Amino acid sequence: METNKEKSTSNKFSTVREHVDYLMSKGYSFNDAVEETRESFDVKQKVGTMEVVIHTSSIILLLTVLSALLKPLLIFGIPYTLFFVGYAVLKGFYPRITEVLSELSLLGLSLGLGFVAIALIGLVINFTIGFTFFNVIIPVIILTEIFNTINSIREVRQWNTSTIQ
Predict the structure, then answer these.
(1) Which stretches are transmembrane (predicted)?
(2) Does residue 91 contact residue 98 with C-beta atoms inside 8 Å?
Protein backbone atom coordinates (compact mmCIF):
# COMPACT_ATOMS: atom_id res chain seq x y z
CA MET A 1 0.00 0.00 0.00
CA GLU A 2 0.99 3.59 -0.54
CA THR A 3 2.28 5.60 2.41
CA ASN A 4 1.41 9.22 3.15
CA LYS A 5 4.78 10.31 1.75
CA GLU A 6 4.04 8.54 -1.55
CA LYS A 7 0.51 10.03 -1.61
CA SER A 8 1.95 13.53 -1.31
CA THR A 9 4.39 12.83 -4.15
CA SER A 10 1.51 11.73 -6.42
CA ASN A 11 0.67 15.43 -6.90
CA LYS A 12 3.92 16.04 -8.79
CA PHE A 13 2.90 13.87 -11.75
CA SER A 14 1.25 15.58 -14.69
CA THR A 15 -0.25 12.45 -16.25
CA VAL A 16 -1.88 9.32 -14.97
CA ARG A 17 0.58 7.20 -16.95
CA GLU A 18 3.54 8.77 -15.11
CA HIS A 19 1.94 7.95 -11.78
CA VAL A 20 1.25 4.33 -12.79
CA ASP A 21 4.85 3.92 -14.00
CA TYR A 22 6.13 5.38 -10.73
CA LEU A 23 4.05 2.94 -8.67
CA MET A 24 5.12 0.00 -10.82
CA SER A 25 8.77 0.99 -10.20
CA LYS A 26 7.97 0.82 -6.47
CA GLY A 27 6.84 -2.81 -6.81
CA TYR A 28 3.10 -2.51 -7.48
CA SER A 29 1.51 -4.76 -10.05
CA PHE A 30 -0.10 -3.00 -13.02
CA ASN A 31 -3.65 -3.57 -11.72
CA ASP A 32 -2.77 -2.37 -8.21
CA ALA A 33 -1.00 0.70 -9.63
CA VAL A 34 -4.01 1.58 -11.78
CA GLU A 35 -6.39 1.15 -8.83
CA GLU A 36 -4.18 3.25 -6.56
CA THR A 37 -3.95 5.92 -9.26
CA ARG A 38 -7.73 6.04 -9.60
CA GLU A 39 -8.01 6.67 -5.89
CA SER A 40 -5.34 9.37 -5.73
CA PHE A 41 -6.15 11.32 -8.91
CA ASP A 42 -9.29 13.39 -9.25
CA VAL A 43 -10.28 12.80 -12.87
CA LYS A 44 -13.40 14.59 -14.10
CA GLN A 45 -15.19 14.81 -17.41
CA LYS A 46 -15.37 18.11 -19.25
CA VAL A 47 -19.15 18.05 -19.47
CA GLY A 48 -21.35 15.78 -17.40
CA THR A 49 -23.53 13.10 -18.90
CA MET A 50 -26.69 14.72 -17.62
CA GLU A 51 -25.95 17.96 -19.44
CA VAL A 52 -25.54 16.08 -22.72
CA VAL A 53 -28.82 14.24 -22.11
CA ILE A 54 -30.63 17.53 -21.44
CA HIS A 55 -29.19 19.22 -24.55
CA THR A 56 -30.14 16.21 -26.68
CA SER A 57 -33.63 16.05 -25.20
CA SER A 58 -34.09 19.76 -25.87
CA ILE A 59 -33.26 19.31 -29.53
CA ILE A 60 -35.50 16.26 -29.87
CA LEU A 61 -38.35 17.99 -28.03
CA LEU A 62 -38.03 21.10 -30.19
CA LEU A 63 -38.05 19.04 -33.39
CA THR A 64 -41.03 17.07 -32.12
CA VAL A 65 -42.94 20.26 -31.31
CA LEU A 66 -42.22 21.68 -34.74
CA SER A 67 -43.29 18.47 -36.51
CA ALA A 68 -46.42 18.05 -34.30
CA LEU A 69 -45.81 14.36 -33.51
CA LEU A 70 -47.70 13.39 -30.35
CA LYS A 71 -46.04 10.15 -29.15
CA PRO A 72 -42.42 11.40 -29.16
CA LEU A 73 -43.68 14.60 -27.56
CA LEU A 74 -45.10 12.60 -24.66
CA ILE A 75 -42.03 10.37 -24.41
CA PHE A 76 -39.60 13.30 -24.23
CA GLY A 77 -41.92 15.97 -22.85
CA ILE A 78 -42.95 14.31 -19.60
CA PRO A 79 -39.44 13.67 -18.21
CA TYR A 80 -38.31 16.99 -19.64
CA THR A 81 -40.96 19.01 -17.84
CA LEU A 82 -40.86 16.92 -14.66
CA PHE A 83 -37.12 16.56 -14.13
CA PHE A 84 -34.81 18.23 -16.66
CA VAL A 85 -36.07 21.79 -16.15
CA GLY A 86 -35.57 21.63 -12.40
CA TYR A 87 -32.21 19.86 -12.70
CA ALA A 88 -30.88 22.50 -15.11
CA VAL A 89 -32.06 25.38 -12.91
CA LEU A 90 -30.71 23.70 -9.77
CA LYS A 91 -27.29 23.07 -11.34
CA GLY A 92 -27.31 26.62 -12.73
CA PHE A 93 -27.66 28.13 -9.27
CA TYR A 94 -25.74 25.49 -7.29
CA PRO A 95 -23.11 23.84 -9.52
CA ARG A 96 -21.69 21.51 -6.86
CA ILE A 97 -25.06 20.28 -5.62
CA THR A 98 -24.49 16.76 -6.99
CA GLU A 99 -21.42 16.36 -4.77
CA VAL A 100 -23.36 17.25 -1.62
CA LEU A 101 -26.76 15.61 -2.02
CA SER A 102 -27.80 12.02 -2.57
CA GLU A 103 -29.54 11.02 -5.80
CA LEU A 104 -32.92 10.83 -4.11
CA SER A 105 -32.60 14.33 -2.63
CA LEU A 106 -31.43 15.65 -5.99
CA LEU A 107 -34.43 14.05 -7.69
CA GLY A 108 -36.82 15.61 -5.17
CA LEU A 109 -35.28 19.07 -5.47
CA SER A 110 -35.25 18.83 -9.27
CA LEU A 111 -38.92 17.85 -9.37
CA GLY A 112 -39.93 20.64 -6.99
CA LEU A 113 -37.86 23.30 -8.71
CA GLY A 114 -39.15 22.13 -12.10
CA PHE A 115 -42.75 22.58 -10.96
CA VAL A 116 -41.94 26.05 -9.63
CA ALA A 117 -40.11 27.11 -12.81
CA ILE A 118 -42.92 25.91 -15.07
CA ALA A 119 -45.55 27.58 -12.85
CA LEU A 120 -43.68 30.88 -13.02
CA ILE A 121 -43.35 30.60 -16.80
CA GLY A 122 -47.08 29.87 -17.00
CA LEU A 123 -47.86 32.87 -14.80
CA VAL A 124 -45.81 35.22 -16.96
CA ILE A 125 -47.30 33.82 -20.18
CA ASN A 126 -50.85 34.07 -18.82
CA PHE A 127 -50.50 37.79 -18.16
CA THR A 128 -48.63 38.63 -21.36
CA ILE A 129 -49.44 36.70 -24.54
CA GLY A 130 -51.83 33.97 -23.39
CA PHE A 131 -51.69 30.20 -23.35
CA THR A 132 -51.12 28.18 -26.47
CA PHE A 133 -49.09 25.03 -26.84
CA PHE A 134 -46.15 26.77 -28.49
CA ASN A 135 -46.25 29.72 -26.09
CA VAL A 136 -45.67 27.34 -23.17
CA ILE A 137 -43.22 24.72 -24.43
CA ILE A 138 -40.81 27.06 -26.23
CA PRO A 139 -40.06 29.23 -23.14
CA VAL A 140 -39.58 26.05 -21.07
CA ILE A 141 -37.02 24.79 -23.60
CA ILE A 142 -35.32 28.19 -23.71
CA LEU A 143 -35.10 28.44 -19.90
CA THR A 144 -33.71 24.92 -19.62
CA GLU A 145 -31.14 25.51 -22.33
CA ILE A 146 -30.02 28.81 -20.82
CA PHE A 147 -29.33 27.23 -17.43
CA ASN A 148 -27.87 24.06 -18.94
CA THR A 149 -25.53 26.07 -21.18
CA ILE A 150 -24.40 28.18 -18.22
CA ASN A 151 -23.67 24.99 -16.29
CA SER A 152 -21.81 23.40 -19.22
CA ILE A 153 -19.66 26.50 -19.74
CA ARG A 154 -18.91 26.63 -16.02
CA GLU A 155 -17.85 22.97 -15.95
CA VAL A 156 -15.62 23.31 -19.02
CA ARG A 157 -13.93 26.37 -17.53
CA GLN A 158 -13.44 24.57 -14.23
CA TRP A 159 -12.05 21.53 -16.03
CA ASN A 160 -9.62 23.66 -18.04
CA THR A 161 -8.33 25.56 -15.01
CA SER A 162 -8.12 22.65 -12.59
CA THR A 163 -5.03 20.55 -12.10
CA ILE A 164 -4.83 16.87 -11.41
CA GLN A 165 -4.85 16.37 -7.68
Answers:
(1) 52-70, 76-94, 106-125, 131-150
(2) yes
Dist. CA 54–CA 87, nearest whole Å = 9
- Give the lowest-confidence range in 25-29, 52-56, 102-106, 148-152: 52-56
What radius of gyration do the chain's Cα atoms show? 22
* pLDDT for 109: 92
pLDDT at 164: 47
Q: Is 135:129 a contact under the CB 8 Å cutoff?
A: yes
- What is the DSSP code string of 13-51? -SSHHHHHHHHHHTT--HHHHHHHHHHHS----SS-HHH
Query: 3-class secondary structure for 100-141?
Result: HCCHHHHHHHHHHHHHHHHHHHHHHHHHHCCCCHHHHHHHHH
Contacts 24+ apart (CB under 8 A), 126-131: none
